[in-house]
Specification:
With about 575 residues, the chain is α/β, with parallel strands linked by helices. Among the domains are: about 80 residues, Gyrase A, domain 2 (2-Layer Sandwich), CATH 3.30.1360.70; about 100 residues, no CATH class; about 180 residues, Orthogonal Bundle (Isoleucyl-tRNA Synthetase, Domain 1), CATH 1.10.730.10. It has 21 helices and 13 strands. The strands form 4 sheets. The chain has a 4-stranded antiparallel sheet with strand order 1-2-4-3. Strands 6-5-10-11 form a 4-stranded parallel sheet, sandwiched between helices. The protein is globular and about 90 Å long. The two termini are about 35 Å apart.
């Protein structure tokens, strides 16, 4: 289906052309002044300079030509040259009915589907997920889901940190604690144990202890660096320990990401790219792109016309070690070989923007990625506490993500118990569904690049711009439909021309689904889905307050309302799913 703004442009085109103006100047947007109009065309403003006329003259001419259209109930020119439009209720009802009957509510899926890699997650193995991992996970998951809904082949990769110094630190700390293990016996020749010599809880205690020790004990740090080098060189005993670390960590990471309703297609890490690094370095040198600078090997990435200076991308340190940039470039080689993506989206802390500018430019300069392939860096801000500082536990530590989820679920459960509206056997599951939506919506409703304040009381509120408020709206609609008794018959009901301003506003909002989804995808901006959901929920609640749906005596009109609110429920549920949320049966 065509978007309603595109249909308005088509309707205005004959009027523009009949007046002697090129259709390329037509621009139609939804009005941010609903008291004045529903849609606005600023084509006259754009054409004025080319045709050496006042914008209001052009707007007036076009308006007169378009006044006979059945699409518009009102069209008028307004200074300095806007064309203000209100849709005819009959036309809008027909369009809304078509949206209700369409499998994707008016969204035209991609004519040429792309293969898209979304790189998100970025957790380090051997460490628990903490609040700092929240944004990458929920923003990345939403972009993956939105892309797939648009019809693209989207591949989500967790891209684990599994190959750095933390591995050497764990190995040497394990040696100090359990020197009798066969991994540390150079004369050992048998098979290494299948069972890991630590649990996830022990592993999560080993790493921070080793990290702290390395800051005070230089000899220990040197041992860890040597252990890391031996691991990366393929030393079998250390490789066996690494495999234990990976198996124990992955099981825990998968469980915790699942608790967030986040999943990945690929569970790859930095280690998977290591075999490509020697060839990458050789290729950069052979092409004359990499050169030595103060002992390190670097690639210039600055371009003519840059507004600021960009330092070279270091691909090998003076001691011969690879860096994150090297690993990221090698990962791109692997992805190009395996998937040949048409587009990349990296969801990472915005403080890493320079790093990814360097990596993207070096990748295109080296011919690893085609120059025309879009590579989007979706850098996100930080989640802060109410005092404006980083979000931490009461004792000043970094809060585990599992703890954060549990806290918000407990707060929701308490609220459910107080209201006594949810059956007792549903309360725990309902609290989990609402708590997760409160957490994710609280994050996603903010523009990704901006910092935001985590406020549990505001996030779990059933009122205002919150996830629970959207869920409450869906539950309210479900309750009405249940009382009405509408089942499959709702599909046969016809949406009627609006009989009130609130009914028309709800129809208008529901017809904007495709625009919201497209905009969120093109601009890598999942907060636009939240904005749209909030607008639909507000429009429904205004309509609900004004119209007694179940008490309506005109059965034909009542049936039309039932079809309309069924569409509202379906669209809100679809938006929730695009953001990785669900709605409960009762609230």
């Amino acid at each position: 289906m065509k978007k309603i703004v595109d249909l308005i442009i088509e309707e205005l085109t004959p009027a523009f052309e009949a007046c002697g103006y090129d259709r390329q100047y037509i621009r139609v947007t939804r009005s941010n002044r609903p008291d004045l109009c529903e849609f606005q065309c600023n084509g006259a403003m754009a054409a004025a300079k080319a045709y050496k006329k006042k914008p209001i003259e052009i707007a007036g001419e076009v308006t007169e030509r378009a006044k006979g259209s059945r699409m518009f109930s009102e069209i008028s020119a307004a200074l300095p040259g806007f064309i203000n439009i209100r849709l005819d209720p009959d036309y809008l009802a027909e369009y809304t009915g078509a949206v209700a009957g369409d499998g994707k509510y008016g969204l035209e899926t991609a004519a040429q589907p792309e293969t898209i890699i979304v790189d998100y997650g970025g957790a380090n193995v051997a460490k628990p997920l903490h609040v700092g991992h929240l944004r990458s996970a929920v923003i990345g998951e939403s972009m993956k889901r939105i892309g797939r809904y648009m019809g693209h082949h989207v591949i989500g990769d967790v891209h684990l940190g599994d190959w750095g110094l933390q591995m050497g630190l764990i190995i040497e700390e394990l040696r100090d604690r359990q020197p009798e293990l066969p991994y540390f016996d150079e004369s050992f020749e048998g098979e290494f144990p299948q069972e890991a010599p630590f649990t996830i809880s022990e592993l999560e205690e080993i790493y921070p202890a080793a990290s702290e020790k390395s800051k005070k004990d230089e000899a220990f740090r040197e041992r860890a660096q040597q252990a890391t080098l031996k691991l990366q060189s393929g030393y079998p005993p250390f490789r066996a320990i690494w495999e234990h670390i990976m198996s124990v960590s992955l099981a825990d990471l998968k469980k915790n990401y699942a608790n967030l309703n986040v999943s990945f297609d690929l569970w790859k890490g930095e280690s998977d790219a290591q075999s490509y690094i020697p060839g990458l370095i050789a290729d950069l040198v052979d092409k004359g792109l990499a050169y030595e600078s103060e002992g390190a090997l670097v690639v210039d990435i600055a371009k003519e016309g840059d507004a600021k200076e960009y330092p070279p991308c270091i691909v090998r340190k003076s001691d011969g070690a690879a860096l994150y940039a090297t690993s990221d470039l090698a990962t791109l080689i692997e992805r190009e070989k395996d998937f040949k993506p048409d587009r990349y989206i990296y969801v990472v802390d915005k403080r890493q923007e320079l790093h990814f500018i360097q990596v993207f430019r070096a990748a295109k300069k080296a011919g690893i990625v085609k120059e025309e392939t879009p590579m989007a860096f979706l850098g996100f801000g930080t989640m802060n506490s109410k005092d404006g500082g980083p979000f931490k536990t009461r004792d000043g530590g970094v809060m585990r993500l599992e703890t954060l989820i549990n806290e918000i679920v407990k707060a929701v459960y308490k609220k459910i118990e107080e209201k006594q509206k949810v059956p007792e056997n549903e309360r725990q599951r309902t609290a989990q569904i609402i708590g997760l939506a409160a957490l994710k919506y609280g994050d996603l409703s903010n523009q990704a690049t901006k910092d935001y304040v985590f406020d549990i009381d505001r996030f779990i509120s059933f009122e205002g711009n919150t996830g629970p408020h959207i869920q409450y709206t869906i539950v309210r609609i479900k309750s009405i439909l249940e009382k009405y008794g509408a089942g499959e018959d709702a599909e046969m009901m016809r949406i009627l021309p609006a009989g009130s301003a609130t009914e028309k506003e709800l129809q208008l909002k529901l017809c904007g689904f495709s625009e919201a989804v497209e905009s969120a995808f093109i601009e890598t901006a999942p907060h636009k889905i939240c904005q749209y959901m909030a607008a639909v929920a507000d429009a429904f609640n205004d309509f609900y307050q004004e119209n007694k749906i179940l008490a309506e005596e005109d059965k034909k009109r009542q049936a039309g309302w039932i079809r309309l609110i069924t569409l509202a429920k379906d669209i809100l549920n679809t938006c929730m799913d695009l953001l990785g949320m669900d709605s409960p049966e009762h609230m």
